[in-house]
């Protein structure tokens, strides 16, 4: 690749299409090796003892570490995102009905997205970062919500909160404050800075 100078492609410990797309668009060759961890079990074991940003960072590390032992010497990036509205936390909806319920709770309100990334090689953490964005949804009608869910289809179960800002989800919002890549699920700019610092990207 034009800018990437590491000896092998970056390993992404996730099936996330958005994360893969943003890395590939930045000219970074990516190999997908999804992490097999039980995120909900990890959360339950914590009993709410971690703030949402800390939880996102922990889960990003868990994913990268799990894959690191399967791919010796490779650079592994794990990423995770949490959504909180006050003390209420949200996970990816299991189905469209759950997405509808989440969006009803979020409409007309502000919430925060915490996106974290951890870079691991041979089990050692090379870099970690967490960033926060704040978003406010419009007070849309039930009819609009039904239309949105029908148009968005199964994608509403692929992201926490039931929306993808880079797609039809943008129509749900009246204000967005924060880095665009953070909202999509990965603080990309700090990660690229670290790659350049280490010589993995040409400067």
Automatic annotation (TrEMBL):
One of its GO terms (biological process) is nucleotide metabolic process. Its cofactor is a divalent metal cation. One of its GO terms (cellular component) is cytoplasm. It catalyses: a ribonucleoside 5'-triphosphate + H2O = a ribonucleoside 5'-phosphate + diphosphate + H(+); a 2'-deoxyribonucleoside 5'-triphosphate + H2O = a 2'-deoxyribonucleoside 5'-phosphate + diphosphate + H(+). Its EC number is 3.6.1.9. GO terms for molecular function: nucleoside triphosphate diphosphatase activity. InterPro entries: ITPase-like_fam, Maf-like. Keywords: Cytoplasm, Hydrolase, Nucleotide metabolism. The active site is at 80 (proton acceptor). It comes from the Bacteria. Pfam families: Maf. It is found in: Cytoplasm. Belongs to the Maf family. Nucleoside triphosphate pyrophosphatase. May have a dual role in cell division arrest and in preventing the incorporation of modified nucleotides into cellular nucleic acids. This is Nucleoside triphosphate pyrophosphatase.
């Amino acid at each position: 690749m034009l800018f990437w100078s590491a000896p092998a492609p970056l390993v992404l410990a996730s099936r996330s299409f958005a994360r893969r797309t943003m890395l590939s668009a930045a000219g970074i060759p990516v190999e997908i090796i999804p992490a097999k961890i039980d995120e909900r079990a990890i959360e339950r074991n914590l009993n709410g003892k971690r703030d949402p940003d800390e939880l996102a960072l922990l889960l990003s590390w868990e994913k990268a570490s799990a894959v690191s032992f399967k791919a010796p010497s490779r650079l592994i990036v794990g990423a995770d995102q949490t959504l909180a509205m006050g003390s209420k936390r949200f996970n990816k909806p299991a189905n469209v009905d759950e997405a509808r319920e989440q969006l009803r709770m979020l409409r007309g309100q502000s919430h925060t997205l915490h996106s974290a990334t951890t870079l691991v090689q041979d089990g050692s953490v090379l870099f970690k970062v967490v960033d926060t964005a704040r978003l406010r949804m419009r007070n849309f009608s039930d009819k609009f919500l039904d239309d949105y869910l029908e148009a968005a289809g199964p994608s509403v179960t692929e992201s926490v909160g039931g929306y993808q800002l880079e797609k039809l989800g943008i129509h749900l919002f009246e204000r967005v404050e924060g880095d665009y890549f953070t909202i999509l699920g990965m603080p990309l700019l700090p990660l690229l800075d670290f790659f350049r610092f280490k010589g993995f990207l040409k400067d």
